[in-house]
Structure formats: C-alpha cells, structure tokens
Amino acid sequence: MEKSLEPIVKNLQDKFGATYEEFRDEVHCFVKPEQIVDALITLRDEHRFELLSAQTAVDYYPQTSPRFHVIYQLTSLAQNLSVQLRVPVNGDNPKVPTAANVYKTAVWRERELLDMFGIEFEGHPDPRRILMPEDADGHPLRKDYPLGYEEPQFTFNFEEIDLRKPYAKE
Amino acid sequence: MAQLEEVTINQYKHLVSERALTGETMLLNMGPQHPSTHGVLRLLLELDGEVVVNCVPDIGFLHTGVEKNMEAKTYQKAEVMTDRLDYMNTMGNNLAYVMAVEKLVDLDVPPRAQALRVILVELQRIASHLVWLGTSGLDLAAMSMFLFCFREREQILDIFELVSGQRMMTTYIRPGGVWRDVPVEFETAVRDFIKIFPKRIDEYEKLLTKNPLFVDRMVDIGYLSKETALSYGVTGPTLRASGVNWDLRKARPYCGYEQYDFEVPVLHEGDTYARYLVRIEELRQSLRIVEQALNKLPMGPVRSDNRKFVPPPRSEIGVSMEALIHHFKLWTEGFQAPKASIYSAIESPRGELGVLLEGDGGPKPMRVHMRTPSFDNLAVLPEIVKGTLVADLVAILASIDIVLGDIDR
C-alpha cells in the first residue's frame, strides 16, 4: 500500500470498522451498506476524494450472502490517489442507501445498477430504468439472466422456428 | 415480454416543472433521430418559447449488452467487443481493456510495443477530435469543416488499415503487445501525416477560431463550473476546459508516456469556446507525442514471450511441439487469470476510460465494467443547458463530445 493511503484506510477502519484487501497496489475497503454514505462523505470532505470515478456492481451468484458487491472507485486529484469501497449486499431484496447527495454522478450510475442488477438505492431522486426499455423484464447483468440468442432458420425448419420467433408487435 | 404501456406525463412529473403539467410550457422530443444529437439520443425538452427550462436525456437506444457478452468469452476473444463501445476510439478501447488484462495476470510488454501503442492511440485521439471538430462545425453551420476534417481522418484510418487490416474495428493491440509488427510503409505514412497536419490545424483555426459567427455562438455559452464538473464525474477535455488540470497521461503515466514531452492544455473559462480551444490544442500536442514516439521507436519484439498468455509466432508452430501446444491451449481454452479484481484507466479522447476487471480463476472474466467517459459527461448536460436557447443546446451538446456507443455500451 502506498504510504499516503495508510492514514486514510486507518481512518476508515477506526470510524466504520472497515476491513481491507490489497491486490497489485490497489486497496479495496469493505464497508457495511448503512455506513456507505458516511464513508463517502468522510472521504470527500476529510481526504479530498473529489471524483467518484466509477460505480458498479459484481454478481457472485449462486452465492447469496453476500450476492452482490457494490463498488465505488474514488479518485483524489489533489493527492493523485485511488481507493475502492465495496459494499456487500445480500441477494434477496438488495438495498443500499443512495450516494446521489454526495456525488451527483451517482444519480445515473445508480439508475444503471437498478436497471442492470436490480439493486435498489434508497432515497434515489429518479429511480427509473436507464438503458433497457421501461417495460423490460429482469436485470440483464445478473448471472442468472440468460445470454439471449437467435435460432438460425434453415429451409427444412424455417416455418417451425418462424412460429415461435418473437417479432415486434404491429 | 410485457405489454406495451402508454407513456404519460406522470413518469416525468419529478423531472419537469409544474408549468409543464398545466400546459404553460411545452414538452418537445429532440431525437432519437436528429442530426445534432450525434447518434441515437433522445432529449426530452421542456420549453418556454425558445428557452430550455428542463432537459431529460433518454439513453439506451444503442444498448448492446457488451459487458454481458464479454462475460461469456475468454479474455482474448472478449477484446473484439471493446472495439464496438466507443467507435471513435477503437485503439484506445483496446488499450484500456488490454492494460486491465495485463495488470490482472501481471504480464510485461516489450518497449517497441509500448511505443507503437502510444503512436496509434495518439493518432486515434487526433482522428476522434477531427470527427468532433467536423460534426460540431456542421452543427454550427460551418459545413466545409466536416469535409476538411474527414479528409485528414481518412489518412489516419489508412494508417490503421495498413497496420491492422481494418479501418475502424482494429483489435490491433493485444494482451502482451500488439498483433504483429508494423509494415515498412508505416513510418512513411505517419511521417507524411506529421508533415501536413500542422498546416491543416492552422487552416481549421483560420476558418473557425476568430470567425465572429462561430465565436458568437460559443463564447459564454454553456458554462460548466469546476465543482459541478467534478461532482458529476466529468473528465477529459471537458473538465480541463473548466480549469482542472487532470490528465491520466501526466498524472499516472502508462505505456511510457513519461518519456514524451507534451503539455496538457487547461483553460478556466468553462464555456463552449474553451472546450473548443482545449481540443484544438490537444490536436497539436498529440501530434508532438506521435513525432517523438516515432523518432524514438525502439527495435525488438512486439509481443511478450510469456507463452502462458501470448500465442507463439506462426513460424514456431511448425517446428516446435511446445509452441503447437501453447497455440492450441490459448485459442481453445484461453489463459487462467487469478480470482481478483483490478481497475485500470487510460485517458481517452473523451476522458477517463476505466476498466474494472474481475476474474474468477478461470479463462473467462467474471465481470468486465467499462467506465465510459461519455456516460458521465452526458449526465451533466441537464445542469448546463437550463435557461439557454434551443440553438445553444446544439452547440453545448457538440462541445461535450459524446459518442452514443460509449454511453449505452
């Protein structure tokens, strides 16, 4: 771990009981869902992490508790440092408090997570789907969502497949 | 498939003002098929006469599920998908993904490959900025800009065709190096471009920079403050035009950018004109980098000789049993990456292009997330355009330089 990152991780440990992992000089801190907003505010205001570079999630299906990790990749321009926060969330009814009041970029990023993973962000100002159509079923980036395909039609089974092939409605 | 539902104003109630509900202001769709939205982007505008009261971007028309598709492919094969994200920056996307893979499996890249990567990615940045310059000129009625810019861009695409066989979907940069060494004509082609291009930039500037019609449309239009930009995660030239000196090529050099002498243009005005000037200056700086890298281009291999991750050259397969085994293993099963997660980012023409890559110990990535700059850059649009005229909205949208393939993924 870089020297300048040590007091920041120490602060997170003291305040939020965060645990951390290291891999190839990257630090991943694990925080509980109910503390994430406070942890982000601490990092932004006390340690000058101005930029929420990325916010995404990983699905560890079939593992259910935790099933998801919600990831916050933070960058400090002033100190040229990066730290990653991870929030483990359970599989049934996943909920995390919204970070939209801390970083504005979270508004769209959390809409994307709601759309793609079905993770709900409590207190989100605009909880709509963002990439998929409003009436879509399911959440595509979940591991139990099938990767779709189209059945190839040949002359001998053209009509048979044509019958069950989904077409756009008139 | 669920039944089609009728869309009502109630869905947008929290996004528009109360005057829209009474019918005092008008709701108008700009797009999805509109020439100045630079792709399939729909903007729901609430208009009070000519003034924009609220703007609600609606994206997803180009959603192709690239991240999901990559999870089903091996690390090498998934790279082909990255070309299709930001189709103005294919080399950069390849580089971002490949650097993430190299970091995950800890793979070294020979110096010649590093220099070639820098040359190609900088040429790509020029090509991308040229498309931006041409299309934003077109939006502001400078029609001839488009033709001039595409003339020079074609020359860059010819160089890409020379090295990779493809004009746009190159997949030339591979884990451990590049696909193969550049042909002998490469150096002349790049030198020709370096020779003519500075004069061409002067030509563009002569047409636009001091042109009163153009300047009037841009100065003091679409002000973006430093604080708003950072809070919305805006990066790249758009952020640098708001007075933040942040360029990953300088801050966290990769591919040996620290060896090259170049400047990062920063302006403090934060308006559309500043964003234009920053990008014009970046054209010159990118050309400087290309020239230096070409002068210093070292000889040597272009691919790592770590056979566990990089396939052996074709010539070895006929004579070496091990080479044949490695070739077969790498192209059928792929290579195993550790069960870990990394994040690595490069400076794309639009900003920070990050890749979050998580392996599960097998040959396929468990999760690939592309942190695409246009997504966050577009999110700030509603904030900038409030209170401007519809005609200015076109100029602002052009100045933040979005690519819809980059947003929708």
List strands and helices in order, with pairings:
The complex is a heterodimer of chains A (170) and B (409).
Chain A: H1 6-16, E1 19-23, E2 26-30, H2 36-46, E3 51-59, E4 68-76, E5 81-89, E6 95-97, H3 106-117, E7 120-122, H4 158-164
Parallel strand pairs in A: 2-5, 6-7
Antiparallel strand pairs in A: 1-2, 3-4, 4-5
Chain B: H1 18-22, E1 26-30, E2 33-34, E3 39-40, E4 42-48, E5 51-58, H2 66-71, H3 75-83, H4 90-105, H5 111-139, H6 143-164, E6 173-174, E7 177-178, H7 185-208, H8 212-218, H9 226-231, H10 237-240, H11 248-251, H12 272-296, H13 314-317, H14 321-332, E8 341-348, E9 351-359, E10 365-371, H15 373-379, H16 381-385, H17 390-399, H18 404-408
Category by helix and strand content of chain A: alpha/beta
- The largest beta-sheet of chain A arranges its strands as 1-2-5-4-3
Instruction: Classify the beta-strand content of chain A into a percent band.
Output: 25-35%
Q: What share of the residues of chain B does DSSP label as strand, in percent?
A: 5-15%
User: What is the approximate shape of chain B?
Assistant: globular
In the CATH hierarchy, the architecture of chain A is 2-Layer Sandwich
End-to-end span of chain B in angstroms?
A: 22 Å
